[in-house]
Amino acid sequence: MGLEGFDGNESILYHLQSPCRIREVGPFEPIVREEWVPDAHAHRHFRTIGIAPAGDEISGRQLLMWNDDVELSLCRPSEAMDFFYRNGEGDEVIFVHEGSGTLETIFGDLSYKAGDYIVIPRGTTYRFTSDGPQRHLVFESPGIIQIPRRYRNEYGQLLEHAPYYHRDIHPPNELKTYRDGGDHVVKVRVKDGYQTYVLDYHPFDVVGWDGYVYPWTFSIHDFEPITGRIHMPPPSHQTFGGRNFVICSFCPRKLDFDPQAIPIPYHHSNLNSEEMIYYVDGNFSSRKGIEIGSVTLHPSGIPHGPQPGLAEKSIGMTETHELAVMCDTFHPLRLTALAQGLDDGQYAYSWYEQPEAVKEAKSADEDPAGVTSHF
Ligand SMILES: [Fe+2]
Question: How does strand 84-87 pair with strand 181-190?
Fold first, then answer.
């Protein structure tokens, strides 16, 4: 399996059966997206912590926002996968907010835990076997999701000053070869839908593989933050690069060390980019309404930045304990009916006056802003 004809990265898999062999072509289910077109263009805050568990790790993906480059979904599965899955038209990155388990794949078992990004190249057949409750943030893209080019040398190796290194990349740790007969259902995402096939053998019939295309995990806790004397803009947090979007990790870190630094971001207009931030962990308790699982969306064309009072309050802060995942897209995002239901309707006004929580915060660490700034 390979990318870009025979010119891109590839892996060779040694199968017991012809991978073309199918017993039955099953039904095709088109993907249906229920769009919400808001009446007004404004900053938004969605509370996602309470979404109801539903489906399995695939059918339970609840689309929140999307465009032609990336789909962002929330997933809290309530049942086990009774089929195998393969995304035939996109790469996937799954951020594991809560839960652990094993991603069984045709390349072998990949164990995962909370804080991991699971990177699954298109064409990888897999099945989740989870240990208990899960909460996932799922990115799916028709483009290729990769390690940013500027983190690598001309040969592709990670540079030592990149925020993560080879030791942080975990490939499948055990190849299991199955020789079982009997019906096995494989669902493949193709043509904006799901095509079901029935095989008469276990799809993990590989006795070995080699190459550059395989699933892996990377823990957000292994991201080494880059900080400076004055404020470093978001590209310093970049973790993955996609087609017209980036994924960034905001991790606990020391802050800008100039005695006069204002260690939260300046106001900025992301003119042709949309910025989604998913809040994973940190002390947001003093900010009314902001909580773990909150998602903010700063759409293109209008500025955002620290709320009133925060820049002053941040002076002298030396560290932050926030943990957040950001996705910046370079084309507008569309929202779903799910987003409409989770929208707090108030966030756009949060720059209008100094929030009570900011006035009341006793210490910098209690600061409701987090240091991504965007509160
Ligand atoms: Fe921003």
Answer: parallel
